[in-house]
Every structure is written in C-alpha cells, then in structure tokens.
Amino acid sequence: MTTTTRIIAAPVVPSTGALRPLGVDEVHITDGFWAQRQRVNGSATLPHIEHWLEKDGWLANFDLAASGTLPAGRRGREFSDSEVYKYLEAVAWEIGRRGTDAAFEARFRAVVDRVAAAQEADGYLNTNFGRRGQGARWSDLEWGHELYCLGHLFQAAVARERTRPGADDGLLGVATRAADLVCSVFGESGIQSVCGHAEVEVGLAELGRLTGEPRYLAQAALFLDRRGHGTLADIEWGRSYFQDDVPVREAEVLTGHAVRANYLAAGAVDIAVEGDDTELLGALGGQWERTVARRTYVTGGQGSHHQDEAFGEDWELPSDRAYSETCAGIASIMFSWRLLLAEGGGSGADGRPDGRYADLIERTLFNVVATSPSDEGTAFFYANTLHQRRPGEPAPSDVMSPRASSSLRAPWFEVSCCPPNVARTFASLAGYLATTDDDGLQLHQYASASIRTRLADGRLVAVDVATRYPDDGTVTVTVTDDMPEATTISLRVPAWAASASLVLRAVDGSIETVDSSPGYASIRRAFSSGDVLELSLPMRARFTVPDPRIDAIRDSVAVERGPIVYCLESVDLPAGAGAFSGLQVDRTADPDDRGDGVSVLLRTASADAEAWPYTTTDAAGPDAEPVEAPLVPYHRWAQRGPSTMRVWLPVHHAR
After folding, report:
1. What is the pLDDT of residue 23?
2. Is residue 267 exposed (0-12), middle (13-18) or buried (19+ Cβ within 10 Å)?
3. Which of 144, 213, 325, 425 is exposed most, by the fewest CB atoms within 10 A?
C-alpha cells in the first residue's frame, strides 16, 4: 500500500491505497485527441460557461445575497450556486494545467470575491434559502440541494489549494467555514438527515484529506450511514431515487438517480479507504461489478429512465430511451477511479490486475464525456441517446434550452450541470492518466504526454508518451532519465485487445518481449534514458453482440474499434437505401476498416408502408442489394447538423 504525505495536484488524493495518483503538474498531455479537447476547453468552454453564468444571473445571485436584496431578482434553479462552484473548480484545474496565466487568475479571483461576499457570518452560504421571503435553512433536504451545492464548493477549494498551495484568494477559508457549519448542524447531536442529492460526502472527504481535519471525514461517514433508512420523505419514484431505501453496505447494485448513486458510491469509497473499512469497500466493488454487468450501456453510459434520470432494472437498456446523462458518466468515472486507486486495477481469475476500472473509465470518457461538447466547445448534450428517431431542430446559440430537449447540442440548459462538469473533467484529465506505487509507474489511459514524478523513496521516474490513440493502436513510451534501480513500468492492455504486444527496445541494443494479455503488461528492470517501450493494440473494427437478456436490442450488433463505439447517421445513408428504420446489417462480411474510416454492408427489404405491420408469414418484398454505408464515431454524431442515428443495428437474416 502506498501512503500519500505531500500535496498532489489531482482531484482524488487518498491518504493510502494500492496506487498513488499523479497531479496535473506531473503529467502534461501534449498532443492528440485529449490535448485538443483540453485546448478547446480552456479557450472556448470556460469563457462560454462564465458568459452564461453572467447572462442568466446565476453569478449575480451572489451579488444580491451580499447586498441583502434577495430573494428579489434571484434567477436559476435551487441548485444554480453549484454551477458557479464547478466553474471555479474547472478554472482552478486549468490554471494548474497551464501554469501561470494572469487572465485566468484574475477571472478566478473575481468570482471568488463575489462568492465570499455572500457568505454569512456563521459560514452559511446559499442564495436560495435562509432569508425573509425564502425557505428556512435546511428546510427542504429532499430537493433543496443546499448540501449538494456545498459539496461542489469544497471540491473547488480543494482544486485551488492543490494547484496553488497557499493562494491568498480566500476560497479555502470560505469552504472550511461552511464545512465547520455543516459539522455543527448535522453532527451526531444535530439534524439526523442527509441531502437528497449526494455530493457533500465527496466534497467533505476530499476537504478532510486536504486540511487534515478529521471532523470532515467523520461527517461524511455520518451522512453515509444515515442513508438507506428512510431518512428522507418518500416521493412518487420511491426512496430509491435518493438511494435512501437500502443502506449502502447492504445494497447489491446501484439504483435510483444515476448521478446521485455514483456520487454517493464515490464518496463511500473515500470513507472506506480513510477508515480502513474493507467490508464497505468490498460491498462497493460488488455494486460496481453488478451495475456494469447489468445496467450499463455499451458506451459506458448509465441511466435508462428519463422521468427520474435513473437506472432501470437489470437488462433494462433500451437504445431509443437511453438517458445516459453526461453527468452520470462523469460520476461513474469518479467511482471507478477511486476503486482503481484503492485496489490497484481489480483482479481477474488469475490474480493479475485485469484493468476493469480503467477500461470502463476509457469507454466512458471516449463515448459519453467526449460526446457531450461540440467541436467548438460551446454546445452540449445533456443526455446521450443511442438511437435518435427524428432529427431535432437546431438549438439557438443564445437561448437556454430545457434539459435534454434537443437532438442537437445546446449552449445552455435550465438545469446546466453538464457543461461545467465536462469542463472540470477535461481540465483535470491529466490526473487520471497515470499512477505510481512503491515499485514504479502505471499507465491507465493513453495520450501523448510528458510524465515526470518521484516514487515514495525519491526515485525519479520520467517518460514521454507518444501515440495517435485512438486512431492508431501504437503507444510508445520513451524513458527520458536514467532509472538505475530496478523499476516497474506497467501499461494497461484493454479487455478487447487480446492480441496486443509489448516490446522493450533498450539503448544497449537488447530487445525484450512481454506477456501482453488483457490487464496490465509490466516490465521490471533498471532503465536507461532512451529505452523505448512500444505497446501495439489491435485496432480492427469488430461487431459487438449484446447479452440476450437485453430485450430491446436482441438480434442487433454494434460496431467498435478500439475504445470507440460507432454509429450510423442518416446523413451518411446512401441513395436508395430505404427507410432508416428498415435497415439491417449484413453480417456475412466483417466491418470494412480502412484505417481512415469504418463501414458496413446494409440491406433493406421493401414492404407496403400502409399495410397492417403484423402478419403470420414473412410478407416483405425481396431483399435489396447490399449497400456500403460509412459509420462515424459515436462521439461525433450530430456534429454535422440534424440527423437520425443508431448505435445498435438489426441483423439481416437471408430469406
């Protein structure tokens, strides 16, 4: 087990665990897919978010609170404060990623000043409760989101302190005063309840790790143990919506609102790790496994219900009703990453780390989180359907959109949790690429990057990673400083990469080939500057077949290439291919993978469009000749304008 004693500029820094995370000052993404996303995030998305926070008055709510004029003029939903805090967190990570940036620093401090001015003398901070004409403090724990908002405030303060230790902007003081109040009001002798939307648990745990204040972690544990006992009032969707129907330690699978469930699970891992609670950690690992096996889309998305943004029952994964909220994907990554740090990657039947947690993180990053923003970084998907039946109307660039109402990305939403959530994830992404333990370095996600860190005993580990992944499956790791003592470098081999290979080409001319079965391929030796490790992953397009218990997509296939899920868009349908809904994929031929694109053969059968659609015989007309249709990466769908789309393609059966 590794023990962390210094400040690490990363979103999650456990005091102990199998692996130690690396900070955004130790890992720098330099080129490729994720570097481009980070550039757009910093140059376009963050200014875009601040523009909308000002335009719709969500920032001005703090000014009104400071001037004593609330509730008159307050705008936004009850949780709009949290979007300001997520924006601050994103900017803090961006400053940490970029280094000194006077413009971002000035913008950050200006927003912090406005937030700090709204805090009351006892530490309370919320623009929607507590004043004449507003609801009383803590009077609506089911729906009020007061503690949820503070959880995001705590995470913003943690991000700032870890990237700029000792900054004199005042945000950490704002956060600790608010956290002290929470501990006083909701402690063992205080209000015996929880927040309807989990998040404060994660924020308190990380703030406790940062400051060393044990009360914060103890309060997070109190909130966790209170949940699941009918603490909150019942609602039409049941207490499972709040994860308040079954104690966390007794739950078998994630249920209810998918974002809340994953935030709670992430916080529970924090509490288990800091409390050395192996029973709780084991229960959470089991919940993760069953949720992934039964309640997760091929994209990594979670949540199949629109009405309550919730998980369905086992195998309830309809494509056309997939909700798969962007924030649920981000929360899932938070849960998986914490399990990876705690356990070291998950163990397969042979006892080797099998990479399951990093595999799901990769799938979700490429196929949910990367799907949400437009190429320009100024419009977003809130939900991520897997089958769009009708092309929607383009979303105006200057109008707030109702949540998940458009098949095109929208610039802002009435519930706009996703844009700043995406922004903070991209800004801190370097903190999810690699880890160390007492023996060496582990690479979990692949991007061109520079990594320079030290192990607990002071040994320097310095490598450069070069790759065109996910377009290409070659990952080259070049050692840039001598490592005279034996050190282990491990690279994740995804579950789909059964024929991967890892080769070491040393500067002394020796060549070493390593077992590269799925999991982690490792080389242990003394390294010299200039040694090169080359991982080759098989990037061939493949058909993916669903579990037959998923009724909605039985007898269908999806196409994947590497970590990327593909889809068919109506804008790519060849002339004469027929109605979109009647297309079937011809499985007599594998997907055509030319390196610069993937296509499949499609067939369509003619039928009387006006006839009764159910018969006792196959009344359809003769098969049309197969036509070749290009597929696009799912994360790129709707980038070219209104379209229909589907991920799962019905299989054609010869007549």
Report:
1. 97
2. buried
3. 213
Q: What is the model's pLDDT at position 346? A: 63
Selection from 105, 85, 87 nearest residue 95 by Cα: 105
Q: Residue 406: what pLDDT?
A: 63
pLDDT in tens, 455-465: 999 999 999 99
Q: Which amino acid is residue 607, in one-letter code?
A: A
Backbone dihedral angles phi then psi of residue 212, each to the nearest 5 degrees: 80, 10
Rg (C-alpha) for the chain, rounded Å, is 25
- In the predicted model, what is the mean pLDDT of the chain? 94
What is the torsion angle, in degrees rounded to the nearest 10, for the CA atoms of residue 201, residue 207, residue 213 and residue 219? -10
Interior/surface letters 358-386, b for 16+ CB within 10 angstroms, e for the rest: bbbbbbbbbbbbbbbbbeebbbbbbbbbb
Q: How far is Cα of residue 347 from the mean position of the Cα atoms in its chain?
A: 22
Per-residue confidence (pLDDT) for residue 617, from 0 to 100: 73
Q: Are strands 501-505 and 511-514 parallel, antiparallel or unpaired?
A: antiparallel
In a domain, 8, yes or no: no
Residue 402 pLDDT: 82
Residues 302-321 as b/e (b if ≥16 CB within 10 A, e otherwise) read: bbbbeebbbbbeebbbbbeb
Residue identified by tokens 């070749």 is 628
- The proportion of the chain whose per-residue pLDDT surpasses 70, expressed as a percent, equals 95
Residue 579 reports pLDDT greater than 60? no
What is the spatial distance between Cα 80 and Cα 550, in angstroms, rounded to a whole number?
37
Taking CB atoms within 8 Å and a gap of at least 24, the contacts of 590-597 are 590/541, 590/542, 590/543, 591/541, 591/542, 591/543, 591/559, 591/561, 591/631, 592/541, 592/628, 593/539, 593/540, 593/541, 593/561, 597/630, 597/631
- For residue 29, the cross-strand partners are 449
- Residue 553 maps to a domain: yes
- Nearest 5°: the CA angle 375, 376, 382 is 70
pLDDT of residue 377: 98
Q: How many CB atoms lie within 10 A of CB 236?
A: 7
Domain's final residue, options 508, 536, 564: 536
192 and 240 share a domain?
no
How many angstroms separate the CA atoms of 103 and 105, rounded? Answer: 5
Residue 547 belongs to a domain: yes
Residues 420 and 382 sit within 8 Å (Cβ to Cβ): no
pLDDT digits (tens, 9 = 90+) for 32-87: 999 999 999 999 999 999 999 999 999 999 999 999 999 999 999 999 999 999 99
Residue type, 524: R
| Boundaries of domain holding 511 | 434-536
Please give the C-alpha separations between residue 457 and each of 171, 342, 348, 439, in angstroms, as whole numbers.
33, 20, 29, 9
Residue 358 has a pLDDT of 98
Which residues, listed in sequence order, are joined to residue 488 by a DSSP beta bridge?
440, 524
Region 405-420 average pLDDT: 89
Q: What is the pLDDT of residue 4?
A: 65
* CA pair distance 264, 250, nearest whole angstrom: 14
DSSP-based three-state secondary structure for 336: helix
Return the pLDDT at 621. 54
Q: Is the pLDDT of residue 354 over 90?
A: no
The count of domains in the chain is 4
